[in-house]
Amino acid sequence: MQATATVLVYSDDSNTREQVRLAAGRRPAPDAPLVEFVECATPAAAVRELDKGGIDVCVFDGEASPLGGMGLCRQIKDEVFRCPPVLVLIGRPQDAWLATWSRADAAVTLPVEPVEFAGALASLLRAKGLQQSA
Fold first, then answer.
1. Which residues contact 32 (CB under 8 A, 6 or more apart)?
2. Which residues, other chains included, contact 19 with Cβ-Cβ below 8 Å and sequence gap of 6+?
3. SS (H, E, C) 25-36
């Protein structure tokens, strides 16, 4: 049980990063901890943040360029020790199989729908044992 969870958001699009922040709010669910965001616009910056440690959940934009979030997800699942859970933002529901290929822990479609996104993020936080202490 911790008071704050750190969520890494990777997207080359600042509007997508903003959608993620707004959809999650300060707490994605009543039983979830407060969230703080670390934003990255490049894959290299995201990997550097993961190497530092302290990231509880990742949110990757599957439509990012030059490296999409699904490719980055697959890479970090192989390279990062105790890789945090990853939620991938996909362009269309039919791309869910690609999210499975990338080994993402969850996927939601773009544009970010706040209730769906917050629910998926809260679920990953719960699965990791990060819940609001009573």
1. 5, 121, 122, 125, 126, 130, 131, 132
2. 111, 112
3. CCCCCCCCCEEE
Element (H, E) at 37: strand 34-40
Residue 23 corresponds to which tokens in the numbers above?
């959809």
Token pair 């030059």 is found at 66
The model scores a pTM over 0.70 = yes
| Residue 16 CB partners (closer than 8 Å, separation 6+) | 61, 63, 64, 89, 110, 112
CA distance 128 to 123: 9
Number of residues assigned to the chain: 134
10-residue stretch averages of pLDDT, the chain, 134 residues long: 86 98 96 96 97 97 96 96 96 92 96 97 91 57
